[in-house]
Amino acid sequence: MKAQVFRGVNQLVYEEVPTPEVAADEVLVQVRVVGLCQSDIKKIRYPLYEPPRIFGHETAGTIAAVGSAVQGWQVGDRVVVLHHIPCMHCAYCLNDNFSMCEVYKTITTTAGFAPSGGGFADYVKVPGHIVHHGGLIRIPADISFEQASFVEPTNCCLKAVKKAQIVPGQTVLITGAGPIGLMFIMLVKYFGARAIATDLIPSRIQKALDLGAEAAFDARDPDLPVKIQSLTGGLGVDTSLLAVPSPKAFFQALDCTRKGGKILFFAEFPDEVEIPINPNLLYRREIDLMGSYSSSYRVQALAADIVFNRRIDVDALISDRYPLRELSRAVEQAVAPTPDTYKILLYPDHG
Predict the structure, then answer these.
(1) Contact indicator for 156, 35 with CB cutoff of 8 Å
(2) What is the pLDDT of residues 153-200, one digit of tens each?
(3) What whole-number distance in Å separates Cα of residue 163 and Cα of residue 176?
(4) Are 55 and 116 in contact (CB under 8 A)?
(5) Would you give the distance in Å from CA 104 to the centre of its chain?
(6) Which tens digit of pLDDT belongs to each residue from 251-271?
């Protein structure tokens, strides 16, 4: 089979690799579409992992082989593949911190070499732990593979919305109107809250409005806090979701968040970034700072429901489609996006 093999920083080689063989409790999935995620880009462009590896994890496809001990699944079933399933019994899992679980963090879906997701290949092997504990989700007949590939990123955003306890009637500031920020806008609106978005690109500001933001502003607007105060009765927003890794965005959020409000870090910052802050700003205004990393097993079924019942418009997030052999070109576009670049999807060539 063909796969995009990570051979070093910024070195992707589209090459022939052995098709994985499945054990009795495993399943082999033919990849039909895989989303390009910012975490994939980070792994490709920085020396974080030893090569060779095959990345990719926002995967949807068709079951091509089933191990002899697998029950409930058969060849031809259309599925979403989740690359993270927690152990459910460690101290983190028992406190609903599933993304901190070591079993969760140890990726085991693979297309070869050290297991690393495996979606950037013709086929990906799903280990028994994931097969038997909810890591395969059946795709309804009326849902496309493209739409289904959004279940995992929807889970990640949904986890953050739930953690910030966003409820009807609240106002939420979303910094950044890329694919993640736009998904936040739709989820915030779905849960009955009002979304205000910021971005640097005019087309993304307009896109935010098109997808349901009550207001959207240029992030460089010096009057942004005043405008948000005007939209919120002089209070400020209840919650700010940082969908871009920008210290300026954080301080902007601090200026725009009401007393007693929350600021949630969703985008991952470079490790060398440090943000100096006077702790009395948090103390006197009772601002809660929190982070939300990856997905949550707890909201997995809800994420699938939201996508499969079209409660948000994931199709509106897709901007570009590439054959898998052009992954390098897709990465370059994601790193230097055009004004109309949002979510990029990739497709293996099965002939």
Answers:
(1) no
(2) 999 999 999 999 999 999 999 999 999 999 999 999 999 999 999 999
(3) 19
(4) yes
(5) 16
(6) 999 999 999 999 999 999 999
Check residue 10 and give left, alpha or beta (phi > 0: left; psi -120 to 50: alpha): left
Give the count of beta carbons closer than 10 Å to the beta carbon of residue 104: 23
What distances in angstroms separate CA 242 from CA 72, 181, 245, 314, 336, one per listed residue?
A: 40, 8, 7, 20, 20
Domains, in order of start, for the chain: 2-154+296-347 (3.90.180.10), 165-291 (3.40.50.720)
pLDDT digits (tens, 9 = 90+) for 217-254: 999 999 999 999 999 999 999 999 999 999 999 999 99
Residues 13/4, Cβ–Cβ less than 8 Å: yes
Question: Rounded to two decimals, what is the model's pTM?
Answer: 0.96
Strand intervals (E) in 9-122: 11-16, 27-35, 58-66, 78-81
Q: How far apart are CA 31 and CA 145, in angstroms?
A: 9
CA–CA distance, 205 with 219 (Å, rounded to integer): 10
User: Would you state the structure tokens that stand for residue 277, as one six-digit string?
Assistant: 């802050």
Cis bond upstream, residue 52 (ω within 30): yes
